[in-house]
Amino acid sequence: MTQMAKALLVDDRRENLMALEAILQGLPVQAVAVESGEAALKQLLVDDFAVILLDAQMPDMDGFETAGHIKRRERTRHVPIIFLTAADRDAQLALRGYQVGAVDYLTKPFDPWVLRAKVSVFVELWVKTRQLAAQSDLVRERDAQWRVLTDAVDEATALLRDDDPAARDRAMELLEHARWGTPT
User: Fold this and answer.
1) CA–CA separation, 97 and 122 (whole Å)
2) Which of 16, 50, 110, 168 could disulfide-link 126, Cβ–Cβ 3.0 to 4.6 Å?
3) pLDDT on residue 84
4) Which long-range contacts (CB under 8 A, 24 or more apart) does 131-137 make?
5) Residues 71 and 101 sit within 8 Å (Cβ to Cβ)
């Protein structure tokens, strides 16, 4: 069961959220739209996201403050943030975005195809990271099984060196249990 990647869209203007959802349509990502930094932080408590598209200028908690909270949380600190803003190309705002942990800072109007490409990269990285984690879990499980089998073979070998028929029977029992993965 593979979980679909999600993108968190954060903007105080509903029409901007609808435009972002339209831009992302057709990508292998589920868009989750919220209208404030506070709502974004709440959403991050219940869902995992491949990328966050965050409006820099919002009332109450702006995007920079929101990003600061996101990056301070252990669970969310590695989620990439792309700032989106209508503010003209003020280098200080972009620098501020990078200082709070953004991976990119785009000013409006931006090329929707560029944004799609950037989101696609982060979605692919998220999927690959999930696949690696699953493979790592599988390797750990197999290592544990290997250790159990090795221990059973070692114990059975020691028992087989004994001339006692009961020890040989116990060795055979250990090997049979190890073969079928049943507890001894």
Assistant:
1) 18
2) 50
3) 92
4) none
5) yes
Q: For residue 165, say if its preceding peptide bond is cis, omega within 30 degrees of 0.
A: no
Residue pLDDT, tens place only, 82-94? 999 876 666 777 8
CB 171 within 8 A of CB 156: yes
**Dist CA 170 CA 172 (whole Å):** 5
Q: Are 85 and 57 a contacting pair, CB within 8 Å?
A: yes
Query: Would you say 52 and 82 are in contact if contact means Cβ atoms under 8 Å apart?
Result: yes
Q: How many residues does the chain have?
A: 184
CA dihedral 94, 32, 51, 78 (to 10 degrees): 100
What is the structure's pLDDT at 88? 63
Q: Under a CB-based contact definition with an 8 Å cutoff, are residues 45 and 69 in contact?
A: no
Neighbours of 94 (CB within 10 A): 19
From 138, 90, 87, 84, select the one nearest 111 (Cα to Cα). 84
Alpha helices in the chain (DSSP H): 14-24, 37-46, 63-72, 91-99, 112-160, 165-180
